[in-house]
User: Fold this.
Amino acid sequence: MGGVARDNSLSEVDLAPYQGRWVAIVRKQITGVGLSEQQARLASKFQRPKEDPEVIFVPEDFGKMDILEKVTAFLAKRNSVAYLVGGAVRDQLLGRAETRDIDLAIVGDASGLARAFANAEGGAFYLMDAEHNVARVLLGKVYVDFAALRGSLEADLATRDFTINAMARAVASSQMSVASTVADPFHGLEDLRAKRVRAVSDSVFQHDPVRLLRAVRIAGELNMAVEPQTATWMRRDAALLANASMERARDELFKILALPNVMALLRQLDELGLLAALLPQVSALRGVAQSAPHDYDAFEHTMRTLDALVAIQARGYAEVANGEFVAELNAHFAQQISADRTRGALLRFATLAHDIGKAVTGSVDETGTIHFYEHEPRGAKIAETICRRLRLSNDEIAIVARTIEHHLRPAQLARATKVTNRAIYRYFRDTGDVGIDICVLALADWRAKSAAAITDPRDGEQRSTLATMLDRYYRAPQQVVTPPALVDGRTLMRELNIPPGPRVGELLEAIREAQAGGEVKTREDALALARERVER
Assistant:
């Protein structure tokens, strides 16, 4: 049975990134992650079929330190005057869980205090802005930013983005969540109660264009509305987003993509001109007409595809393969590809970009039918450029690009009379484990073609095809997906008396495909097939 991650024998395993999930461990290595004990165990068995993992649950508070108490005690010892500012105050007033980002306005040498605090707590120190005396301490996943107070407290708060983030309280205050202890010169508490996001001034976006995205994200997270005058300033300054810090813009975009109401927020980004500024390739899909069975232009189809994906994810991927492989799919998409992004998050981004090639590949034949020949590889190349601009990692770029490049293949297989093992082998040969991501995107893509797609009998055909593909991937990997080598290149050259060259690779590939089809089972079968092809 699984247990809670408190065993000292696991001290060498970094479990902090897996809070709130089940983790399978084999010889101090994480071999599976899932939302349930079964999911983690199955994921581990797929990676290490012959080894029994230890499966544990990592609590939400695993490794959690009461950072604010530590900061308070540290500053009190030095008689330092400091204020908690920004989102932490807002979240305390809302009664939300403690934020991972703590912003402090310090009277005095902020970077010096930050360095001393990092040394005292064993944290990492970063000097972020020497000129303005700003430094960061990283403790686990918690950021503590120390910034020198800029003038008076009110003058400092005037430099903040939104009124609900322009509140402060003395760090030494013992009544953290009591409104009366909060300095609120811009009436942020009133806006918090009215559920509106209002800019502190008309220049906040000019000082930091990433705030344009943050306004939409905060409104989406807190179920608020952007105040009309603020929205007017956002439209005015939208073009500035193109020259913003792309790492920070990326992080805000992915936070928006992670929200359940993502389609409404993307439409808001579009209406404010922010989508065109950040992702003009997606905005360019507006008005790109499509022939039947599509009911929508390429932009609307993209929005609806993402909405369909969010619904599929919310139901735990249960319908992708008619209720099969739910544990495996959840474990697959829970994989952490980078420090901040999971496979499921990347799939949402790939879905947003899956048809961007259509804006540059449209053509109309003599019957008036619209085609987008090669839009998948063209779109994949465009997506690579976008990903590099957003500073995604090489692994993330590879996943996104491959997802887009092959996103039509499951639908093509679904149109076949029978999905053969040979076809499934070729699919996973070309896509690897990204083939799983593509299967899920394919279902969402199909459902976004028309309003009636989900009730169309062909929806069942799509799911049955996906079930067959996933069955071979999870239940028959060595028979179909990655058949073991029966012969190698040197054996072929020796037995068939052929020279080195591309022909050897072609013969090996033909053998593997025939293995997947069940036509070649032994070394002798493999040599016979190769000999026949050479003698043709």
About this structure: Confidence is low (pLDDT under 50) at residues 1-9, 174-178. DSSP finds 26 helices and 14 strands in the chain.
